[in-house]
Design goal:
Blueprint: E1 5-9, H1 13-25, E2 29-33, H2 36-45, E3 50-54, H3 62-71, E4 78-83, H4 91-96, E5 100-104, H5 108-121, E6 134-136, E7 141-144, E8 147-150, H6 153-164, E9 170-171, H7 172-179, H8 188-202, E10 211-214, E11 218-221
Parallel strand pairs: 1-2, 1-3, 3-4, 4-5
Antiparallel strand pairs: 6-7, 7-8, 9-11, 10-11
Helix pairs in contact: 3-6, 6-7, 6-8
This protein binds calcium ion (CA).
Length: 222
């Protein structure tokens, strides 16, 4: 079996070093990033079999970081790290999408087992697509060419989920799971209101794809 590579995004230097050392001893190739910005630079130039992403970061929410890379067609599986007392809200939706999460503090053997399990599921690690919309989770903006727009957290998450669909229709309930906390009560037309707002914003970005309504399913970015 080829050596597996792991990219770790964790701002706690001690924990990052511990994970890197431990996985290294287990035969993984490990690279670490201390901030979302550093991680996004790294992932643009190197591929990984599994990503380990802390949720609480100084410059972004780890979940938004992952949504942003999914929007660029990076399909690498993710293990989220989260504080024990944090409500796993949107993590439920992510876990359903094939990713995983571990609460801190965790037993190291558990992390290794999860990394191996996720790595086995990977068929083709994708490096991502540099064309198209660039979603930046550190300031929740979207850019195309030299133009950029600021988005609200919900708009950012909706757009990232739509972009990750690669032109396929995304179901309404998937959009709700991506953009709102798990268990939040969101009225049916609230989604449409946000989509309408996002549509108007995207119209200010020359050359941006359009959000189209897919009757009976949801929305797609085309
Ligand atoms: Ca942290």
């Amino acid at each position: 079996m080829a050596e597996l590579s792991v990219l770790v995004l964790e701002d706690d230097a001690e924990l990052r070093a511990l994970i890197a050392r431990g996985l290294g001893e287990d035969g993984f190739t490990v690279a670490g990033a201390a901030s979302a910005a550093e991680f996004l630079r790294l992932i643009a130039v190197r591929s990984a079999d599994v990503l380990i992403v802390d949720i609480g970061l100084p410059d972004a929410d780890g979940r938004d970081v992952v949504q942003a890379i999914r929007a660029r067609n990076v399909k690498t599986p993710v293990i989220f790290l989260t504080a024990r007392d944090a409500v796993p809200d949107r993590l439920a939706g992510f876990a359903a999408g094939g990713d995983d999460y571990l609460t801190k503090p965790f037993v190291f053997a558990e992390l290794v087992a999860r990394v191996r399990a996720l790595a086995r599921r990977v068929e083709v690690p994708a490096r991502g697509d540099d064309a198209g919309l660039r979603l930046d989770p550190t300031d929740r903006s979207v850019a195309l060419g030299s133009a950029r727009l600021d988005l609200s957290p919900i708009e950012f998450r909706l757009l990232a989920a739509l972009a990750a669909g690669q032109q396929k229709a995304i179901r309404r309930r998937e959009l709700l799971a991506a953009a709102w906390p798990h268990g939040a009560i969101v009225h049916d037309n609230t989604l449409d209101v946000y989509i309408a707002r996002l549509r108007r914003k995207l119209e200010q970005l020359p050359g941006a794809p359009l959000i189209v309504t897919v009757v009976g399913t949801g929305y797609a970015l085309r």
